[in-house]
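pinning this so it doesn't scroll away 📌
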Amino acid sequence: MKELELKYGCNPNQKPARIFMNGEKDLPIQVLSGRPGYINLLDALNGWQLVRELKKATGLPAAASFKHVSPAGAAVGLPLDETLAKIYWVDDMGELSPLACAYARARGADRMSSFGDFVSLSEVCDVDTARLIKREVSDGVIAPGYEPEALEILKSKKNGNYCVIEMDESYEPEKTERKQVFGVVFEQGRNDLDINRDLIANVVTVNQEIPDAAKIDLVIALITLKYTQSNSVCYAKGGQAIGIGAGQQSRVHCTRLAGQKADNWFLRQAPQVLGLQFVDGIHRADRDNAIDVYIGEEYMDVLADGAWEKIFKVKPPVFTREEKRAWLDQMTDVALGSDAFFPFGDNIERAYKSGVRYIAQPGGSVRDDDVIKTCNKYQMAMAFTGIRLFHH
């Protein structure tokens, strides 16, 4: 098949819409269920590239949760401890396969942003992963294949309208890519840069020690940034992205946004949050929203108007600013990647507040000395990769 007609483009008024191949090749995808849209396919094809590269770089199954052409989360298939299983709402599922662990991590890092995601999987989708996807609000999934039972589970989602796409694992695109904007054709060599640990060899700080686990996290951060709308910054820890700041015009705003998401990921693990008692029958998304409010500054307003009774069985105590800061001070050994150089040390100051100890960025700013000095102030290890990773 060389062409696939779509319902419409980015918006309902943008018709007609299709994807197609020039030349002799067929489309590298097969739609097994549902009817994917224009943005669905942008998410699917970007997400597939991301998880394919994560698997190549780490040797582990990988998953990504995509929304509006940027990842909300990306991870490899490391086991979940009891706390992570609980905050990702999978503690009732027993022991999960490595692929399911990867998706639980990718989906769970930023559950607010992952709501209605498009899933990308590096491996044949197994039953564990299908069961996990089945109960989340999601638009579709792309994978190199599906176990028969897993496919039936996914086909039953959304009354048979859930998008299930099979990717040709052997497909390789042309070296040159093109797109059209306002009738003008843009052409460039595709970004086939191989991201691996070699990019982290040039450590420019006093602290030269980057342990293997941190190198894996930095590689995960850089590969994630390669498929994130720029400007972008990614915090990673324990084999997954924990905070992604995408599409900001200012780099420090990327750092703040991603840092806030990383903070929220860690705050969800605090005893105050783990001890919340929700009313029976509350939806998963409502729980996520309630937690986001609880760890935010506006929770005092919720307590004041009595809205808590609709969400919690017992009125939770206020999670004070001082308590949250004390908990966040325990978050350490976080890795941080940036798709372009840090122009000022303020990015490092903000990163430090979220437990960052290891950094990978291109370098090349006229203020590199100031950025290095700020890293040395906090005993951080920073590598200059020499490679920019803008994506648009």
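📌 and the second one:
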Amino acid sequence: MIIGIPKEIKDHEYRAGMTPASVVELAHHGHRVLVESGLGAGIGVPDADYLRAGAEVLAGPAGIYGQADLIVKVKEPQVSELRMLRPDQVLFTYLHLAPDLAQTRALLESRVTAIAYETVTTTDGSLPLLAPMSEVAGRLSVQAGAHCLEKANGGAGILLGGVPGVESAHVLVIGGGVVGDNAAYIAKGMGAHVTILDNSIPRLRRLDIEYGGRVNCVFSNKASIEKYALAADLVIGAVLVAGATTPKLVSRDIIRRMKPGSVVVDVAIDQGGCIETSRPTTHSDPTFIVDEVVHYCVANMPGAVPRTSSLGLNNATLPYVLKLADQGWRTALAEDPGFLNGLNVHDGLLTCEAVARAHGIEWTPAKKILGKS
């Protein structure tokens, strides 16, 4: 199979869909790998390393999209990339279609087969290809929030961990999944007072044991969200409903009543955000202020640390890329129901129910797709 890895073109997105180590594995399996020149520049990897790994380096994206059977990326295809997709091609990347009707329509019109990292599951329902970037984003969220709390950046001028004799900041983490757990880990490590809200008692019980009672683990409902958000200096939105639009849990009214100079970091913004006043931002212009509350809503947060992110992502995606390349997408998905859950679009048909609900579009179950010739 011919596998193509184009360079990412989203604002300040430096991650690489494949590292040289991944290319070595694909080449060892007998596949032809095409990479765009400069693919690894953002992670400190020159073209020469990809050549030594067995890839062919092409000068631009046209040759990649024109020849490859399988396109492996990190972020959703941008407008210029959507135009290059072909009906007989497989696209494997993060898509986040639920809040993005324009991209959904463009993928349907391209008739490409699109498999989304974020909806691939394991037998226990976890999300193996989303997890590594959720870990990065969770840890980064506190780092970004602490920076935004500085007075020069619009914040209240609070040091997250305080100093002896001065109280440290109060951090609220909404959601106790992978993002929330990693956010709490960093916030507590920096010396903040941390509260995690979640609507799963077993998860709260696990977090309470994990942190030895040093983190306040509280059941999430409207009353607790309001209470702890109004007391917080930093709120981390870490809510996820796999493949679906995120519910708005922090209302505009709560934002209006929060402390001036407080900060919200909406990690859920890729799926629409869990804070009513959120809107996607970029690394070029990461923040905005609503009612004296600083909002950090960068839609590709892990792109800020591309080397760590690319290595972590490749560790998770490579086994799946090898399945697609070795077996073809139909066999690979038929043999793994969790992998089949990643199929979002095929030949003009939408195959993800959560995305269909978000946009009011008809959908076709992925299992039916496998039965088509």
